[in-house]
């Protein structure tokens, strides 16, 4: 199971070098609107990952916390007042999204 997370992080880490991508280039699922983002070096994120038993100690990827998908971009009514991101691993029901890159809406 560790390999699955590392593969997701490898993609996220390679995307993280960018300062932001257009929403249309997010091909890993819907763009996510996260209440906050950070890395495993942030104490709150590290603590949350520990509570969820998600080991990402060797990876320095952007992680989104409390995320919801943005399904309609630019159609009035669907906006993100927090941090819009494109993440390579959204399999934690919105609690965390891993391997994220900022998105410009």
From TrEMBL:
Residues 1-18 form the signal peptide. It comes from the Eukaryota. SMART domains: HYDRO. GO terms for molecular function: structural constituent of cell wall. It is found in: Secreted, Cell wall. CDD domains: hydrophobin_I. Keywords: Cell wall, Disulfide bond, Secreted, Signal. InterPro entries: Class_I_Hydrophobin, Class_I_Hydrophobin_CS. GO terms for cellular component: fungal-type cell wall. PROSITE patterns: HYDROPHOBIN. Belongs to the fungal hydrophobin family. This is Hydrophobin.
